[in-house]
What does this fold into?
Amino acid sequence: MADKFDDDMLDDLFAAARSDVRVAPDPDLMARVLADAEAVQASWARDDAGACAEASTPSLWQGILSALGGWGSLSGVAMAGVAGVWIGVATGSTLMTNTLGLDLSGTGAQTYLSDLDVSYALELDVEE
Amino acid sequence: MPYDQQDDVPDDTLLVLYANGDDTAARALTLRLTPRVFSHAFRMLGDRAEAEDVAQEAMIRLFRQAPEWRQGEAKVTTWLYRVTANLCTDRLRKAKGVALDVIAEPEDDAKTAAQSMLDQARSEALQRALATLPERQREAVALRHLQGLSNPEIAEVMTISVEAVESLTARGKRALAAALADQREALGYTDG
It folds into this structure.
């Protein structure tokens, strides 16, 4: 019986405590919490803006790369260069069957521009 | 319609909206959750200023957690009550006890003056009696009977079994009844 009495009393006390308007937060606390909420959101916005600005500031190298047409163009140029060297080395003397070709691909002889084009030859008109 | 007027918007949805920069969600979360956190902290600590500090700290932790929040995994209130309890425990260990703050002036016009005074006296008596309970009993009783959580929810907050919650609340209520035994008549209760 005492337990039932105590239970009823406690239920009543709990109800009084739950409806006690004095155990509500002050408007000042609510304002502080809301200010915190907005400050945290604002800090994320600042972080995002900073990250975007950092990402959009190109370095000198990035500028040069961009002027050349980006990584795609640069790799194309590099590939063409490598392919040219390869073709030259792999085919050896087969593409250059005359003596001039052999001279150019070899190391044993000196070659002059006049061998490539006669217009480079120095002509001396000597009247006899 | 503002979110704080839409009770059917779940807490975790509001938190996701908040993380996406929605300032209306910030307001809704503040209005909805701060009173709960504050009242629980006050019941645990018995000190208004301390409870305000705890409530503010718990809420700011929730806001910072928002971008990492995984919808559907945990209940926002469960997480919040757990953080609040931890913050209260830290303060209680430092203070070595529970303060008995005087509750601020009454302001309920709907009730008669006599009834209001009696209700206030009962609320204050309960607060004094709660302060005498061991911390875990006080937490379980306050979550069950003042915050209205179910036993499984309390078990999740306190990371104990439902049976342990039942045991804590039962022992807590017995201790409360004993602490209030000599005030029954003064609080308007007569046996028989």
Remarks:
- Helices of chain B lie at 11-19, 23-45, 48-65, 76-95, 113-131, 135-146, 151-158, 162-180.
- Chain B has two domains: 1-100, 110-192.
- The mean pLDDT of chain B is 88.
